[in-house]
Amino acid sequence: MKKLLGILAIGLFTILFGHDIQLLSVDNKDGTITPKTIEDEFKKAGFYISDNRDMNGPFMKQFQNTDFKVYNLFTTHHIKSVQNLAKEYPRIGLFTPISMSIYTKKGEDKLYVSSLTLEAMSKITGIPSDNKDLKNIAKMVKETLLKAMPNGKLEKLSYEPSSTPKELITKMHVKLKKGDWVSDSDSIIEEFEANLEMNGFVQAGFNDINYYFKESGDKYFDIFVSESICKLPVIYTVAKTRPEAGAFAPCSISIYKKSSDDFMYVEYPNVYNWIASLDIDNKEAIRELIEAQAKMEVVLHNLKTDYEK
Mind listing the pLDDT tens digit for each residue in 188-223? Predict the structure, then answer.
């Protein structure tokens, strides 16, 4: 019976809430459910934990304020499913790891967890929503959250996703010199990271997706890493009206090179996903997002220009 109820609950997740964001809440007056207990449940389910970062400390340090009793950005991924997808769909690196926000607002006892729906991940990456490995990732996230949050319920968001004429992925690629791709790619990544730091971005995680291919002797990729980056004023400002924005933060920047060609690709899901999926209309939040996007585009443009001189 419990198993049947669990299956029905997961079905309701999909049927009732056609948003890009899925939001689960639970009464947590006794405080027994925490970011750590949620992390432990994901570990038991076989997920790799990239980070589980308490943001209230940074909020208080930089802005001397927070609207939350709890606000964590939680990042995780399922290694085998990602590995199965990566060759045909390297854009799975855009969600390796998957991001979630775990939060309780001041003056409330409810604990919330937000994450992206299967449909949203499919829309952004171009991976078909009926792909078995992408479906498995989404299914396991839902199942694990329901286990971690007993008696949790689905929250209906007060808005619908809006449309945008903008591209949802910002991308850049460079052609590396034959025979010297290792030093070239290392230099590009080092310069990229330095420019991110100079423009106020923080590296919040690093995942070597190619490590698991190399471990099994598979040389399909020469490079495949995903860097999680965050700009504190962005998530702080957006979270005031859309705390579920942690489903996009930190952002995963995918960097990869196939062994079969000489191109290195840099891609990330940009801020227009935030604005459209979260239907953001707060002027200050939009300003922070657009400024961050502009800085990232300059970083990528300069990197490509410098390399190709």
Answer: 999 999 999 999 999 999 999 999 999 999 999 999
Q: Higher-confidence residue: 14 or 197? A: 197
N residues, the chain: 309
Q: Are residues 68 and 106 in contact, defined by beta-carbon separation less than 8 angstroms?
A: yes
How many angstroms separate the CA atoms of 20 and 12, rounded? 15
Is 17-307 assigned to CATH 1.20.1250.20? no
Is the separation of the CB atoms in 228 and 95 below 8 Å? no
Higher pLDDT, 284 or 19: 284
pTM confidence score: 0.91
Residue 77 has pLDDT above 80, yes or no: yes
How far CA 251 is from CA of 83, 94, 139, 154, 190, in Å, comes to 20, 8, 22, 24, 18
In 3D, which of 295, 286, 278 has the Cα closest to residue 101?
Answer: 278
* Domains of the chain, residue spans: 17-307
Q: For 93-150, how does the pLDDT look when each residue is reduced to its tens digit (9 = 90+)?
A: 999 999 999 999 999 999 999 999 999 999 999 999 999 999 999 999 999 999 999 9
CB 66 within 8 A of CB 85: no
